[in-house]
Design goal:
Pfam families: CDO_I, WD40. It is a single chain. This protein has a domain at 335-525: Jelly Rolls (Sandwich), CATH 2.60.120. The model is unreliable at 1-13, 315-322 and 519-529 (pLDDT under 50). The chain contains five helices and 42 strands. 8% of the residues lie in helices and 46% in strands.
Protein backbone atom coordinates (compact mmCIF):
# COMPACT_ATOMS: atom_id res chain seq x y z
CA UNK A 1 0.00 0.00 0.00
CA UNK A 2 1.21 3.51 -0.76
CA UNK A 3 2.19 5.60 2.25
CA UNK A 4 0.53 8.91 3.02
CA UNK A 5 3.88 10.65 2.52
CA UNK A 6 4.28 9.13 -0.94
CA UNK A 7 0.84 10.38 -1.93
CA UNK A 8 1.62 13.85 -0.61
CA UNK A 9 4.78 13.87 -2.71
CA UNK A 10 2.61 13.33 -5.78
CA UNK A 11 0.73 16.59 -5.27
CA UNK A 12 0.87 18.89 -8.29
CA UNK A 13 1.08 22.64 -8.48
CA UNK A 14 -1.50 24.76 -6.67
CA UNK A 15 -4.54 25.90 -8.62
CA UNK A 16 -4.64 29.69 -8.32
CA UNK A 17 -7.13 30.63 -11.03
CA UNK A 18 -9.80 29.18 -13.26
CA UNK A 19 -7.28 29.34 -16.13
CA UNK A 20 -4.89 27.19 -14.10
CA UNK A 21 -7.65 24.66 -13.53
CA UNK A 22 -8.69 24.58 -17.19
CA UNK A 23 -5.07 24.05 -18.28
CA UNK A 24 -4.62 21.34 -15.67
CA UNK A 25 -7.66 19.36 -16.78
CA UNK A 26 -6.78 19.83 -20.46
CA UNK A 27 -3.65 17.81 -19.73
CA UNK A 28 -5.06 15.55 -17.02
CA UNK A 29 -8.46 14.05 -17.71
CA UNK A 30 -8.21 10.31 -17.39
CA UNK A 31 -11.17 8.32 -16.07
CA UNK A 32 -10.49 4.82 -14.80
CA UNK A 33 -13.01 2.28 -13.58
CA UNK A 34 -12.43 -0.27 -10.83
CA UNK A 35 -14.09 -3.44 -9.70
CA UNK A 36 -14.78 -2.97 -5.98
CA UNK A 37 -16.27 -6.49 -5.77
CA UNK A 38 -19.71 -5.05 -5.06
CA UNK A 39 -22.71 -4.23 -7.23
CA UNK A 40 -24.26 -0.76 -7.58
CA UNK A 41 -21.91 1.21 -5.37
CA UNK A 42 -23.47 4.55 -4.46
CA UNK A 43 -21.62 5.93 -1.42
CA UNK A 44 -17.93 6.85 -1.18
CA UNK A 45 -15.45 8.01 1.46
CA UNK A 46 -11.66 8.52 1.52
CA UNK A 47 -9.80 7.83 4.73
CA UNK A 48 -7.97 10.68 6.44
CA UNK A 49 -4.57 10.09 4.80
CA UNK A 50 -5.91 9.21 1.36
CA UNK A 51 -4.52 5.69 1.27
CA UNK A 52 -7.92 3.98 1.13
CA UNK A 53 -11.30 4.50 -0.53
CA UNK A 54 -14.49 2.93 0.86
CA UNK A 55 -17.80 2.37 -0.87
CA UNK A 56 -21.23 1.22 0.21
CA UNK A 57 -23.49 -0.64 -2.19
CA UNK A 58 -27.00 -1.77 -2.82
CA UNK A 59 -25.93 -5.41 -2.47
CA UNK A 60 -25.54 -4.90 1.32
CA UNK A 61 -21.74 -4.91 1.32
CA UNK A 62 -19.01 -2.46 2.24
CA UNK A 63 -15.77 -2.52 0.24
CA UNK A 64 -12.42 -0.81 0.80
CA UNK A 65 -9.65 -0.39 -1.77
CA UNK A 66 -6.05 0.63 -1.15
CA UNK A 67 -4.20 3.11 -3.37
CA UNK A 68 -0.93 1.91 -4.95
CA UNK A 69 2.06 3.94 -6.12
CA UNK A 70 0.42 4.56 -9.51
CA UNK A 71 -2.76 5.85 -7.85
CA UNK A 72 -4.63 2.67 -8.80
CA UNK A 73 -7.24 1.08 -6.57
CA UNK A 74 -7.07 -2.52 -5.41
CA UNK A 75 -9.94 -3.93 -3.38
CA UNK A 76 -8.55 -5.34 -0.11
CA UNK A 77 -11.60 -5.50 2.17
CA UNK A 78 -15.21 -6.56 1.70
CA UNK A 79 -17.45 -6.35 4.75
CA UNK A 80 -20.66 -8.35 4.99
CA UNK A 81 -22.69 -7.35 8.02
CA UNK A 82 -25.71 -5.47 6.72
CA UNK A 83 -29.00 -7.01 5.63
CA UNK A 84 -30.05 -4.25 3.24
CA UNK A 85 -28.63 -1.46 1.09
CA UNK A 86 -25.67 0.52 2.49
CA UNK A 87 -26.59 4.15 1.87
CA UNK A 88 -23.55 5.94 3.25
CA UNK A 89 -20.02 5.23 4.47
CA UNK A 90 -17.69 7.53 6.41
CA UNK A 91 -14.09 7.05 7.46
CA UNK A 92 -12.99 8.26 10.87
CA UNK A 93 -11.40 11.72 10.69
CA UNK A 94 -8.16 10.74 12.45
CA UNK A 95 -8.00 6.92 12.40
CA UNK A 96 -7.37 5.69 8.82
CA UNK A 97 -8.58 2.17 9.64
CA UNK A 98 -11.95 2.98 11.22
CA UNK A 99 -15.04 3.11 9.02
CA UNK A 100 -18.76 3.64 9.73
CA UNK A 101 -21.61 2.55 7.48
CA UNK A 102 -25.33 3.38 7.58
CA UNK A 103 -27.92 1.01 6.16
CA UNK A 104 -31.63 0.79 5.56
CA UNK A 105 -31.56 -2.44 7.61
CA UNK A 106 -31.92 -0.24 10.72
CA UNK A 107 -28.29 -0.44 11.74
CA UNK A 108 -25.01 1.46 11.84
CA UNK A 109 -21.83 -0.62 11.74
CA UNK A 110 -18.33 0.42 12.73
CA UNK A 111 -15.58 -1.53 10.96
CA UNK A 112 -11.90 -1.89 11.75
CA UNK A 113 -10.73 -2.76 8.25
CA UNK A 114 -7.71 -4.58 9.64
CA UNK A 115 -10.14 -7.21 10.95
CA UNK A 116 -12.43 -8.29 8.14
CA UNK A 117 -14.50 -10.81 10.10
CA UNK A 118 -15.41 -8.62 13.07
CA UNK A 119 -17.39 -5.41 13.43
CA UNK A 120 -19.47 -3.47 15.93
CA UNK A 121 -23.17 -3.15 15.13
CA UNK A 122 -25.58 -0.55 16.48
CA UNK A 123 -29.28 -1.36 16.03
CA UNK A 124 -31.46 1.70 15.40
CA UNK A 125 -35.19 2.54 15.35
CA UNK A 126 -35.46 3.20 11.62
CA UNK A 127 -33.72 2.76 8.27
CA UNK A 128 -30.61 4.94 8.06
CA UNK A 129 -29.48 7.13 5.18
CA UNK A 130 -26.52 9.21 6.40
CA UNK A 131 -23.57 8.95 8.76
CA UNK A 132 -20.51 11.07 9.52
CA UNK A 133 -17.80 11.44 12.17
CA UNK A 134 -17.00 14.63 14.06
CA UNK A 135 -13.59 16.13 13.16
CA UNK A 136 -12.20 15.11 16.56
CA UNK A 137 -13.40 11.56 16.00
CA UNK A 138 -15.20 11.32 19.31
CA UNK A 139 -18.77 11.59 18.03
CA UNK A 140 -20.74 9.88 15.29
CA UNK A 141 -23.87 11.44 13.77
CA UNK A 142 -26.41 9.50 11.75
CA UNK A 143 -29.76 10.32 10.17
CA UNK A 144 -32.68 8.04 9.42
CA UNK A 145 -35.64 7.88 7.05
CA UNK A 146 -37.99 9.24 9.70
CA UNK A 147 -36.09 12.55 9.59
CA UNK A 148 -34.38 12.10 12.93
CA UNK A 149 -30.79 13.07 13.61
CA UNK A 150 -28.80 11.29 16.31
CA UNK A 151 -25.40 11.90 17.91
CA UNK A 152 -23.68 8.99 19.62
CA UNK A 153 -20.44 8.46 21.49
CA UNK A 154 -18.08 6.83 19.00
CA UNK A 155 -16.50 4.62 21.66
CA UNK A 156 -19.48 3.43 23.70
CA UNK A 157 -22.13 3.82 20.95
CA UNK A 158 -24.46 5.33 23.52
CA UNK A 159 -26.89 7.94 22.21
CA UNK A 160 -26.09 11.43 23.49
CA UNK A 161 -28.65 13.57 21.65
CA UNK A 162 -31.48 13.17 19.15
CA UNK A 163 -33.42 15.69 17.08
CA UNK A 164 -36.64 15.10 15.16
CA UNK A 165 -37.16 17.40 12.20
CA UNK A 166 -40.52 18.64 10.97
CA UNK A 167 -39.33 18.47 7.39
CA UNK A 168 -37.29 16.15 5.20
CA UNK A 169 -33.73 15.75 6.47
CA UNK A 170 -30.94 14.89 4.03
CA UNK A 171 -27.14 15.03 3.92
CA UNK A 172 -25.19 16.74 6.69
CA UNK A 173 -21.57 17.69 7.33
CA UNK A 174 -19.49 18.99 10.23
CA UNK A 175 -17.66 22.28 10.17
CA UNK A 176 -13.90 21.53 10.47
CA UNK A 177 -13.91 23.14 13.92
CA UNK A 178 -16.38 20.50 15.08
CA UNK A 179 -18.57 23.17 16.67
CA UNK A 180 -21.37 23.09 14.09
CA UNK A 181 -23.25 20.61 11.93
CA UNK A 182 -24.84 21.78 8.66
CA UNK A 183 -27.92 19.82 7.56
CA UNK A 184 -29.65 19.92 4.15
CA UNK A 185 -33.41 19.75 4.61
CA UNK A 186 -36.68 20.05 2.73
CA UNK A 187 -38.37 23.30 1.70
CA UNK A 188 -35.04 24.66 0.43
CA UNK A 189 -33.53 25.08 3.88
CA UNK A 190 -30.23 24.42 5.61
CA UNK A 191 -30.31 23.97 9.37
CA UNK A 192 -27.24 24.67 11.51
CA UNK A 193 -26.77 22.88 14.83
CA UNK A 194 -24.38 23.62 17.65
CA UNK A 195 -22.47 20.47 18.52
CA UNK A 196 -22.32 18.18 20.36
CA UNK A 197 -25.49 19.45 22.05
CA UNK A 198 -27.43 19.22 18.78
CA UNK A 199 -28.95 22.63 19.42
CA UNK A 200 -30.58 24.28 16.40
CA UNK A 201 -29.06 27.75 16.19
CA UNK A 202 -29.99 28.92 12.70
CA UNK A 203 -32.13 28.08 9.68
CA UNK A 204 -31.10 29.41 6.26
CA UNK A 205 -33.38 29.65 3.22
CA UNK A 206 -30.76 28.36 0.80
CA UNK A 207 -33.03 27.49 -2.15
CA UNK A 208 -36.65 28.02 -3.15
CA UNK A 209 -39.26 26.65 -0.80
CA UNK A 210 -40.57 24.35 -3.53
CA UNK A 211 -37.27 22.47 -3.69
CA UNK A 212 -35.46 20.16 -1.30
CA UNK A 213 -31.84 20.63 -0.32
CA UNK A 214 -30.31 17.20 -0.90
CA UNK A 215 -26.50 17.35 -0.92
CA UNK A 216 -24.16 19.37 1.27
CA UNK A 217 -20.41 19.82 1.74
CA UNK A 218 -18.17 22.10 3.82
CA UNK A 219 -14.76 23.17 2.49
CA UNK A 220 -11.70 21.96 4.39
CA UNK A 221 -10.78 25.51 5.37
CA UNK A 222 -14.27 25.98 6.82
CA UNK A 223 -14.94 29.15 4.84
CA UNK A 224 -17.66 27.86 2.52
CA UNK A 225 -20.56 25.46 2.43
CA UNK A 226 -22.05 24.12 -0.81
CA UNK A 227 -25.69 23.05 -1.08
CA UNK A 228 -27.13 21.00 -3.94
CA UNK A 229 -30.90 20.89 -4.38
CA UNK A 230 -33.71 19.36 -6.38
CA UNK A 231 -34.02 22.62 -8.35
CA UNK A 232 -30.81 21.64 -10.24
CA UNK A 233 -28.83 24.43 -8.55
CA UNK A 234 -25.76 24.26 -6.37
CA UNK A 235 -25.31 27.29 -4.14
CA UNK A 236 -22.02 28.31 -2.51
CA UNK A 237 -22.24 30.16 0.80
CA UNK A 238 -19.84 32.15 2.93
CA UNK A 239 -19.85 30.48 6.34
CA UNK A 240 -18.83 33.61 8.27
CA UNK A 241 -21.79 35.66 7.05
CA UNK A 242 -24.03 32.89 5.67
CA UNK A 243 -24.45 34.89 2.47
CA UNK A 244 -24.82 33.15 -0.87
CA UNK A 245 -21.77 34.00 -2.98
CA UNK A 246 -23.00 32.39 -6.19
CA UNK A 247 -25.18 29.72 -7.75
CA UNK A 248 -23.99 27.10 -10.20
CA UNK A 249 -26.84 26.71 -12.64
CA UNK A 250 -25.48 24.69 -15.55
CA UNK A 251 -27.34 21.49 -14.70
CA UNK A 252 -30.87 20.55 -15.73
CA UNK A 253 -31.75 17.86 -13.19
CA UNK A 254 -31.62 17.52 -9.39
CA UNK A 255 -28.20 17.69 -7.76
CA UNK A 256 -27.31 14.51 -5.88
CA UNK A 257 -23.73 15.05 -4.71
CA UNK A 258 -21.29 17.90 -4.04
CA UNK A 259 -17.68 17.94 -2.82
CA UNK A 260 -14.86 20.46 -2.35
CA UNK A 261 -11.30 19.63 -3.41
CA UNK A 262 -8.54 19.36 -0.79
CA UNK A 263 -7.22 22.84 -1.66
CA UNK A 264 -10.72 24.40 -1.47
CA UNK A 265 -10.34 25.77 -5.01
CA UNK A 266 -12.63 23.39 -6.91
CA UNK A 267 -16.09 21.94 -6.41
CA UNK A 268 -17.52 18.84 -8.07
CA UNK A 269 -21.29 18.70 -8.58
CA UNK A 270 -22.95 15.44 -9.57
CA UNK A 271 -26.56 15.11 -10.65
CA UNK A 272 -29.05 13.14 -12.70
CA UNK A 273 -27.70 14.93 -15.81
CA UNK A 274 -25.27 12.08 -16.58
CA UNK A 275 -22.36 14.42 -15.96
CA UNK A 276 -20.18 15.93 -13.25
CA UNK A 277 -19.63 19.68 -13.33
CA UNK A 278 -16.24 20.78 -11.93
CA UNK A 279 -16.15 24.50 -11.14
CA UNK A 280 -13.63 27.01 -9.83
CA UNK A 281 -15.02 28.06 -6.46
CA UNK A 282 -13.98 31.72 -6.52
CA UNK A 283 -15.95 32.63 -9.64
CA UNK A 284 -18.15 29.59 -10.30
CA UNK A 285 -16.83 29.08 -13.83
CA UNK A 286 -16.76 25.59 -15.25
CA UNK A 287 -13.23 24.23 -15.60
CA UNK A 288 -14.17 20.73 -16.72
CA UNK A 289 -17.11 18.42 -17.34
CA UNK A 290 -17.03 14.65 -16.93
CA UNK A 291 -19.65 13.12 -19.19
CA UNK A 292 -21.07 9.80 -18.04
CA UNK A 293 -23.52 7.13 -19.09
CA UNK A 294 -25.69 7.39 -15.99
CA UNK A 295 -26.72 9.53 -13.05
CA UNK A 296 -24.23 10.33 -10.29
CA UNK A 297 -24.68 8.93 -6.80
CA UNK A 298 -21.60 10.18 -4.97
CA UNK A 299 -18.46 12.30 -5.49
CA UNK A 300 -15.42 12.45 -3.20
CA UNK A 301 -12.15 14.34 -3.70
CA UNK A 302 -8.94 12.78 -2.44
CA UNK A 303 -7.86 14.58 0.78
CA UNK A 304 -4.41 15.50 -0.56
CA UNK A 305 -4.49 15.73 -4.35
CA UNK A 306 -6.71 16.44 -7.35
CA UNK A 307 -8.16 12.96 -7.67
CA UNK A 308 -11.95 12.63 -7.78
CA UNK A 309 -13.71 9.37 -6.98
CA UNK A 310 -17.30 9.01 -8.10
CA UNK A 311 -20.03 6.40 -8.24
CA UNK A 312 -22.62 6.41 -10.99
CA UNK A 313 -25.21 4.23 -12.68
CA UNK A 314 -25.27 3.20 -16.32
CA UNK A 315 -23.93 0.49 -18.56
CA UNK A 316 -20.45 0.00 -17.25
CA UNK A 317 -17.92 -2.42 -18.70
CA UNK A 318 -17.18 -5.55 -16.72
CA UNK A 319 -14.15 -4.11 -14.99
CA UNK A 320 -16.31 -1.21 -13.80
CA UNK A 321 -18.96 -3.48 -12.30
CA UNK A 322 -18.63 -1.86 -8.89
CA UNK A 323 -19.59 1.48 -10.41
CA UNK A 324 -16.57 3.28 -8.88
CA UNK A 325 -14.29 5.39 -11.03
CA UNK A 326 -11.38 7.75 -10.53
CA UNK A 327 -10.91 10.98 -12.44
CA UNK A 328 -7.26 11.86 -12.01
CA UNK A 329 -3.98 12.79 -13.61
CA UNK A 330 -1.51 10.66 -15.54
CA UNK A 331 1.16 12.25 -13.40
CA UNK A 332 4.16 10.12 -14.24
CA UNK A 333 3.95 11.07 -17.95
CA UNK A 334 3.07 14.64 -17.10
CA UNK A 335 6.67 15.95 -17.09
CA UNK A 336 7.16 14.65 -20.64
CA UNK A 337 3.80 16.03 -21.77
CA UNK A 338 4.60 19.41 -20.21
CA UNK A 339 8.02 19.51 -21.89
CA UNK A 340 6.65 18.64 -25.32
CA UNK A 341 3.89 21.22 -24.91
CA UNK A 342 6.47 23.89 -24.11
CA UNK A 343 8.44 23.01 -27.26
CA UNK A 344 5.32 23.47 -29.41
CA UNK A 345 4.31 26.73 -27.76
CA UNK A 346 5.71 28.76 -30.67
CA UNK A 347 4.92 28.33 -34.36
CA UNK A 348 8.55 27.47 -35.13
CA UNK A 349 9.58 24.14 -33.60
CA UNK A 350 13.10 22.72 -33.54
CA UNK A 351 12.99 19.06 -34.57
CA UNK A 352 16.18 18.26 -32.65
CA UNK A 353 14.70 19.68 -29.43
CA UNK A 354 11.68 17.37 -29.73
CA UNK A 355 13.92 14.37 -30.38
CA UNK A 356 16.04 15.30 -27.36
CA UNK A 357 12.97 15.56 -25.11
CA UNK A 358 11.75 12.13 -26.20
CA UNK A 359 15.22 10.62 -25.76
CA UNK A 360 15.49 12.02 -22.23
CA UNK A 361 12.36 10.14 -21.17
CA UNK A 362 13.12 6.58 -20.04
CA UNK A 363 10.23 4.20 -20.62
CA UNK A 364 8.44 2.93 -17.53
CA UNK A 365 5.31 0.78 -18.06
CA UNK A 366 3.81 2.29 -14.91
CA UNK A 367 3.70 5.63 -16.73
CA UNK A 368 1.86 4.56 -19.85
CA UNK A 369 0.11 1.27 -19.14
CA UNK A 370 -3.30 2.90 -18.69
CA UNK A 371 -3.08 4.20 -22.26
CA UNK A 372 -1.83 0.92 -23.72
CA UNK A 373 -5.12 -0.67 -24.80
CA UNK A 374 -4.66 -3.61 -27.18
CA UNK A 375 -6.96 -5.26 -29.70
CA UNK A 376 -6.34 -8.81 -30.87
CA UNK A 377 -7.36 -7.93 -34.44
CA UNK A 378 -5.28 -4.84 -35.20
CA UNK A 379 -2.73 -2.51 -33.75
CA UNK A 380 -4.33 0.38 -31.86
CA UNK A 381 -3.87 4.16 -31.68
CA UNK A 382 -4.56 5.54 -28.19
CA UNK A 383 -4.73 9.31 -27.71
CA UNK A 384 -2.73 10.72 -24.77
CA UNK A 385 -2.59 14.49 -25.39
CA UNK A 386 -3.60 17.01 -28.06
CA UNK A 387 -1.04 19.67 -27.16
CA UNK A 388 -3.55 22.54 -27.23
CA UNK A 389 -4.24 21.74 -30.87
CA UNK A 390 -0.57 21.78 -31.92
CA UNK A 391 -0.02 18.01 -32.11
CA UNK A 392 -1.34 14.59 -31.16
CA UNK A 393 0.60 12.42 -28.72
CA UNK A 394 -0.46 8.80 -29.17
CA UNK A 395 0.46 5.42 -27.70
CA UNK A 396 0.41 2.69 -30.37
CA UNK A 397 0.00 -0.94 -29.27
CA UNK A 398 1.16 -3.75 -31.52
CA UNK A 399 0.36 -7.42 -31.12
CA UNK A 400 2.84 -9.98 -32.50
CA UNK A 401 3.37 -9.52 -36.25
CA UNK A 402 1.04 -6.54 -36.59
CA UNK A 403 1.96 -3.80 -39.05
CA UNK A 404 0.73 -0.68 -40.79
CA UNK A 405 0.11 -0.22 -44.46
CA UNK A 406 2.66 1.81 -46.35
CA UNK A 407 1.54 5.39 -45.77
CA UNK A 408 2.41 9.07 -45.86
CA UNK A 409 1.86 11.61 -43.06
CA UNK A 410 -0.25 14.33 -44.74
CA UNK A 411 2.51 16.90 -44.33
CA UNK A 412 2.94 16.17 -40.62
CA UNK A 413 6.17 15.71 -38.68
CA UNK A 414 6.28 12.26 -37.05
CA UNK A 415 8.36 11.38 -33.97
CA UNK A 416 8.44 7.80 -32.64
CA UNK A 417 9.69 6.68 -29.21
CA UNK A 418 9.88 2.95 -28.41
CA UNK A 419 8.34 2.11 -25.05
CA UNK A 420 8.34 -1.70 -25.15
CA UNK A 421 9.50 -4.39 -27.58
CA UNK A 422 10.78 -3.57 -31.07
CA UNK A 423 9.46 -2.05 -34.29
CA UNK A 424 10.82 -2.55 -37.77
CA UNK A 425 10.61 0.47 -40.07
CA UNK A 426 10.79 0.08 -43.85
CA UNK A 427 11.03 3.25 -45.93
CA UNK A 428 10.01 3.79 -49.53
CA UNK A 429 10.39 6.59 -52.05
CA UNK A 430 7.34 8.45 -53.29
CA UNK A 431 6.39 7.46 -56.87
CA UNK A 432 7.98 9.80 -59.38
CA UNK A 433 4.61 11.14 -60.54
CA UNK A 434 0.90 10.46 -60.29
CA UNK A 435 0.93 8.36 -63.45
CA UNK A 436 3.67 6.01 -62.24
CA UNK A 437 2.74 2.32 -62.16
CA UNK A 438 4.91 -0.34 -60.62
CA UNK A 439 6.52 -1.37 -57.34
CA UNK A 440 7.49 1.23 -54.77
CA UNK A 441 11.25 1.65 -54.41
CA UNK A 442 12.52 0.62 -50.97
CA UNK A 443 15.06 3.10 -49.58
CA UNK A 444 15.92 1.74 -46.15
CA UNK A 445 15.15 -0.56 -43.27
CA UNK A 446 15.87 -0.35 -39.53
CA UNK A 447 14.78 -1.84 -36.20
CA UNK A 448 13.96 0.34 -33.18
CA UNK A 449 14.44 -0.89 -29.60
CA UNK A 450 13.22 0.44 -26.24
CA UNK A 451 13.98 4.15 -25.62
CA UNK A 452 15.21 4.79 -29.18
CA UNK A 453 13.69 7.69 -31.14
CA UNK A 454 13.15 8.19 -34.88
CA UNK A 455 11.83 11.01 -37.07
CA UNK A 456 9.80 10.79 -40.27
CA UNK A 457 8.12 13.24 -42.64
CA UNK A 458 6.85 13.28 -46.20
CA UNK A 459 10.10 14.90 -47.35
CA UNK A 460 11.82 11.63 -46.39
CA UNK A 461 9.29 9.45 -48.21
CA UNK A 462 6.81 6.79 -47.15
CA UNK A 463 7.16 4.09 -44.54
CA UNK A 464 5.68 0.97 -42.99
CA UNK A 465 5.99 0.06 -39.30
CA UNK A 466 5.67 -3.50 -38.00
CA UNK A 467 6.24 -5.58 -34.90
CA UNK A 468 8.81 -8.17 -36.05
CA UNK A 469 8.20 -10.47 -33.08
CA UNK A 470 5.92 -13.49 -33.45
CA UNK A 471 5.38 -13.80 -29.68
CA UNK A 472 5.87 -10.42 -27.96
CA UNK A 473 3.84 -7.22 -27.94
CA UNK A 474 5.30 -3.82 -28.74
CA UNK A 475 4.32 -0.34 -27.54
CA UNK A 476 5.46 2.96 -29.06
CA UNK A 477 4.82 6.65 -28.38
CA UNK A 478 4.15 8.88 -31.40
CA UNK A 479 3.96 12.66 -31.73
CA UNK A 480 2.37 14.06 -34.91
CA UNK A 481 2.51 17.78 -35.64
CA UNK A 482 0.25 19.06 -36.95
CA UNK A 483 -2.36 16.45 -36.11
CA UNK A 484 -4.10 14.87 -39.09
CA UNK A 485 -7.20 12.73 -39.60
CA UNK A 486 -6.57 11.41 -43.12
CA UNK A 487 -3.60 10.01 -44.97
CA UNK A 488 -2.75 8.01 -48.10
CA UNK A 489 -2.16 4.26 -48.04
CA UNK A 490 0.01 2.83 -50.83
CA UNK A 491 0.09 -0.55 -52.56
CA UNK A 492 3.73 -1.70 -52.61
CA UNK A 493 3.30 -3.62 -55.89
CA UNK A 494 1.42 -1.05 -57.97
CA UNK A 495 1.94 2.35 -56.26
CA UNK A 496 -1.84 2.80 -56.13
CA UNK A 497 -2.99 4.93 -53.22
CA UNK A 498 -6.15 5.10 -51.14
CA UNK A 499 -7.38 7.91 -48.90
CA UNK A 500 -7.88 6.64 -45.36
CA UNK A 501 -9.46 8.07 -42.24
CA UNK A 502 -7.27 7.84 -39.13
CA UNK A 503 -9.09 6.81 -35.93
CA UNK A 504 -8.42 6.39 -32.20
CA UNK A 505 -9.01 3.14 -30.34
CA UNK A 506 -9.10 5.06 -27.05
CA UNK A 507 -8.89 8.60 -25.74
CA UNK A 508 -7.15 9.39 -22.44
CA UNK A 509 -7.33 5.75 -21.34
CA UNK A 510 -11.01 5.19 -22.21
CA UNK A 511 -12.24 3.28 -25.26
CA UNK A 512 -13.62 5.59 -27.93
CA UNK A 513 -17.36 5.47 -28.59
CA UNK A 514 -16.62 4.39 -32.15
CA UNK A 515 -13.40 2.45 -31.63
CA UNK A 516 -12.27 1.16 -35.01
CA UNK A 517 -9.28 -0.17 -36.86
CA UNK A 518 -6.49 2.44 -37.18
CA UNK A 519 -6.92 3.05 -40.91
CA UNK A 520 -10.47 2.93 -42.21
CA UNK A 521 -10.59 3.10 -46.00
CA UNK A 522 -13.24 5.62 -46.99
CA UNK A 523 -12.27 6.47 -50.57
CA UNK A 524 -10.27 4.82 -53.33
CA UNK A 525 -8.46 6.41 -56.26
CA UNK A 526 -5.76 5.27 -58.65
CA UNK A 527 -2.35 6.90 -58.95
CA UNK A 528 -3.24 7.16 -62.65
CA UNK A 529 -5.85 9.74 -61.81
Amino acid sequence: MTSARALRNKALKTIRSSADAVAYFDANRRVRGYDMQVQRAHALSWNCDGTRLACGSQDRRVAVATVDSSCRLKCTFVGQGHDDSVDQVAFHCTNPNLLASASTDKSVIIWDIRQQKTHTRLSTRAANLYVTWSPCGRYLAYGDKEDRLHVIDGRTLSTLKSYESKTEMNEFAYHPSGKYLFVATGQGRVEIFKMPDLELVRTVAAHSGQSNCVALAVSQDGLRVAVGASDALCSIWSVDEMICERNLGRLDYPVRAVAFSHDNQLIAVGSEDHSIDIAYVNDGSRVHEIRLDGEVYSVAWHPQQLMLAFASSGDLRERDSGGVRLFDHHELMQPLIAEVRSLFRDDCVNIEDVEKALLSYKSNPRDWRDFALFDERNYTRNLVDTGNGKYNMIVLCWGPGMCTNIHDHSGSHCFVKMLEGQLKETRFAFPEDDAAIGPLAKTGESVMSVNEVSYMSDTLGLHRMENPSHSENAVSLHVYSPAYDKCFLFDQRTSQRHVSKVTFWSRYGKLSDSADVPFDRIQSCSRRG
